[in-house]
Write a structure and sequence with these properties.
The protein has 8 helices and 8 strands; from the N terminus they run αβαβαββαββααβααβ. It has a single domain, classed as Vaccinia Virus protein VP39 (Rossmann fold, 3-Layer(aba) Sandwich), CATH 3.40.50. It has about 270 residues and is α/β, with parallel strands linked by helices. Helix 1 packs parallel to helix 2, helix 4 crosses helix 6 and helix 5 runs antiparallel to helix 8. Strands 1, 2, 3, 4, 5, 6, 7 and 8 form an 8-stranded mixed beta sheet that branches. The structure holds S-adenosylmethionine (SAM).
Length: about 270
């Protein structure tokens, strides 16, 4: 089974949200301190880690961990001469309490974990006294479009969840509706100073090309063409639904919106 993510797709998504990622980091207040230590969990090839944390001189130490072998090999190669960075092929489950971090970042990772609540409890013990956790998560209930007479959007979501997502190694535990649950998880793990930010985007004012790119990163990744363990029938059904909705995106007067949720908390 395929254990790797599509790194180009992740890069595209990263660039789209870059400004808001920075906004949330600045809002957290942590950047006023010196000698900050970062742990980026699910860092992939480190592209996004660098994009978010590199420019701050007071961030002196950045560790990235991921279970994606190819991504970590790539990260190690890219950052070989940069002593500020360390990348490890490691799962969250293997982290111990010996190192503490001022910023623990999980960008689009929490929704893929089998037991997010348990992980949040564990990570609290890895924070320094001044430390913060940043959680960037999706929630498909914050996505909608109009007009969608055939309800294509929800047909796509349902087919993906019921017939495709759970059959892939990388997404077998994924919760596409985690965004609204994270507050409860954080309270349950006794975090403090919990804050929530929303990054909302929509198709209004976008060019045709921008709308189609937006479609690909927000909806189109559910295509099953290159996925394992999915029948031809399901693959074809998904392609038809995606193509039909993509055509709607090109129409004047059609509207689509999505929201990304960012939580910050301290211990
Ligand atoms: C959707 S990608 C997000 C990558 C990057 N953080 C971003 O925002 O683009 C999820 C990443 O989390 C990693 N991951 C999943 N479960 C993990 C675990 N238990 N420990 C460490 N990394 C994990 C995956 O391998 C993958 O690289």
């Amino acid at each position: 089974m395929n254990n790797s993510w599509n790194l180009d797709k992740l890069k595209k998504q990263a660039i789209e949200n870059q400004n808001f990622d920075e906004h949330v980091l600045c809002k957290s207040g942590i950047l006023k301190y010196e000698d900050l230590k970062v742990l980026d969990i699910g860092c992939s090839n480190g592209f996004k880690t660098k994009m978010l944390f590199d420019k701050y001189d007071n961030i002196t130490n950045i560790t990235g961990i991921d279970i994606d072998y190819n991504a970590i090999i790539e990260a190690k190669k890219i950052f070989i001469k940069n002593k500020k960075y360390k990348f490890e092929l490691k799962s969250i489950d293997e982290l111990d309490n010996n190192s503490k971090y001022d910023i623990i970042n999980l960008s689009y990772v929490l929704q893929h974990l089998e037991d997010p609540q348990k992980v949040l409890k564990k990570l609290k013990n890895l924070l320094t006294d001044r430390g913060i956790i940043i959680l960037k998560v999706p929630d498909d209930s914050f996505k909608f479009c109009y007009p969608d007479k055939k309800d294509l959007l929800h047909k796509i979501f349902n087919l993906y969840e019921n017939e495709i997502m759970r059959k892939q190694n990388t997404t077998k535990y994924t919760d596409r509706y985690i965004g609204k649950k994270v507050y409860n998880y954080l309270v349950g793990s006794e975090y403090n100073n919990i804050k929530l930010y929303y990054y909302v985007t929509n198709t209004i004012g976008k060019t045709r090309e921008q709308k189609l790119n937006f479609f690909d990163s927000s909806i189109g990744f559910r295509s099953a063409i290159n996925k394992n363990n999915v029948s031809e029938k399901v693959k074809n059904k998904m392609e038809k639904l995606l193509n039909d909705l993509k055509k709607e995106f090109e129409k004047e007067g059609f509207y689509y919106t999505m929201t990304v949720l960012y939580y910050i908390a301290s211990k």
